[in-house]
Structure prediction request, 286 residues.
Amino acid sequence: MSTLNDTTIIITGATNGIGQVAATELARMGARVVLVGRDAQKSAAVAQAITAQTGNPAVDVLLADLSSQAEVRRLAGEILARYPRIDVLLNNAGAVFGSRQLTVDGIERTFALNHLAYFQLTNLLLERIKASAPARIVNVSSAAHSGATLDFDDLQGQRRYSAFGAYSKSKLANLLFTYELARRLAGSGVTVNAVHPGPVATGFGRNNGGLWGVVFRLIAPLMRTPAQGAATSIYVASSPELAGVSGKYFSDSKAVESSRASHDAAAAARLWQVSAEMTGLPAAGA
Ligand SMILES: NC(=O)c1ccc[n+]([C@@H]2O[C@H](COP(=O)([O-])OP(=O)(O)OC[C@H]3O[C@@H](n4cnc5c(N)ncnc54)[C@H](OP(=O)(O)O)[C@@H]3O)[C@@H](O)[C@H]2O)c1
Prediction:
């Protein structure tokens, strides 16, 4: 993809932070970008700003609260009805939650939003993505995954919840999902890779208010700008150098090693099975 003309790129969490910058830069390269947002007004304003900054009118908005499985299903249906091809799916929406919360589906919110939404949306779009090959799936993970392991007896932190613990496990789940999907997609012409954006001053963490919000505001000057943070997602989504490269983890636009736990193929297979059951998808998938 030396230019992104005639490509369609779906980006979740495109209304703030890293996702917004990635959407802007990919639109600047000529792609039709589909911003998945959850607030109609904010999403429309971001789409207008992207068109104004890039001169690209092909900036669409679709709305969904990605912590709701019914909304993810509706979103996938709308994407399939509107877009005959999907060249890139950038799973980026994510958050950390200071206290344990449940979604409308009764699932712990970090696991639901950060992992199950990536899993469900990707699987619902997978046939279309495969039919669009060469195509790419990019999952935004985090270096926060290192040190985490999954406890399959307590995936939703019922026994013990800590915000960072739940977040780091969800980012480990992003990597296990990426590597399992890459194995399943071998030879299909669809690549799947994960990225770490670095510590970036965005809206991240500020959704929690209180001490969390204060801490994230205080450390913001020490962090990367959203433009710096988005660079690796943009590179992995668009660089011609990465044609055919799959099952890798990128930081600072270079392939780097992820944790040992992220390469546990048995855990990845088990997570796939559990995630399929939790989202009502066939486990065979891909
Ligand atoms: N910032 C960092 O230091 C850092 C480091 C490593 C990894 N990451 C990862 O980078 C990704 C992007 O984060 P960011 O730093 O750019 O954070 P951000 O500024 O808070 O942006 C998060 C995006 O996700 C959307 N979102 C949140 N909950 C949603 C929901 N229930 N349904 C639909 N969309 C939802 C937000 O929508 P609204 O605009 O409506 O709020 C926003 O567009 C995340 O996966 C995060 O884990 C971030």
Summary: The mean pLDDT is 96. Helices lie at 17-28, 40-54, 69-82, 109-131, 163-184, 210-219, 226-238, 265-279.
